[in-house]
Model the fold of this input.
Amino acid sequence: MRTAPQKFGDERQERVDRPDHLVISEHPVFRRFWYAACLARSLGDEPVALTVLGTPLVLWRPSADAPASAALDRCAHRDAPLSRGWIANCHLVCPYHGWEWDGAGRTRRIPQFPDAPHPTKSGLTMVATRERYGMVWVCLADDPIVDIPPLPEYDDPAWRVVPEYEFDFACTAPHLLENNFDPAHIAFVHRNTFGNPDRAELADTTVTREPYGLRSCGQVSVESRPGETGATTRTTVSDLYAPFFARIHIAYPDGLRHLMIKAITPVDDERCRLVQIVLRTDTEQDRPAADILAFDIAVETEDRALLELLPTPFPLARHLNAHARADRNSLAIRRLWTDLVTGRWVPS
Done:
């Protein structure tokens, strides 16, 4: 049986100069964005090993009240992983020969000859680091294209912050981001939490290209909301800040507003990490944070079970998949990433 072709304009030219798949490591532009490496509370009194865009990093705090530092996870002396070391006297200590560095990556002590001059190349290769919204952000390039996405609600007393989690996925960052902008999957993937296959009908979404990325507006019927039961409707405004940061604002009929911040960081071409917080306009007495966290972990687990079955790399070209009316968000996102990696569009 032959399937009738779908027409989306002149796809032949699109195939000539645009990639069929998105392989993040093939495009240096992705190194010029800020990524949430972890929650700020995850940095304690020991160094932490994390990988961003295939680059192994060590993150640490020189002291409890010091800002986070990040460097390539490699000692310049004999290539030992610094994340296996420890913190002493506000210094990061190499586990191999005990060399020490301060929070700026400057060599402070070589214990075998403490009074000798330090080698010129003994300092660490530092990575730009910032702390914002209870997260530690890193940028692998010296010239980031844009700043960390704005989140004015974080300091607004009308909103409370629910710190949530770092969630690791064995799927690509594009797959996870697209999933969060896909209303059609809710009724099925989340049928055991807040979806209902018998109520799968959708209203059309409105998608616009914005200077920072995309905005999608729509409504979806759900069977429950965090910590509660009972069918309701979500009115959602979802913002994608390029390349993989999602700000999903949900309004419910009773006036409650629920804002999910999903900072998706590519670990490599086949894995990613989600760092998530939630903000709400109710109180802890209205809905305990523990209930919200338990609900979101259950939802995330459902998504992960499906997403980790999808093949890689991520398909960009439209001819690689079938598309339906419910896929407006997905198609717009794929066009955005295509324009980004081909230089047709740069966020501002």
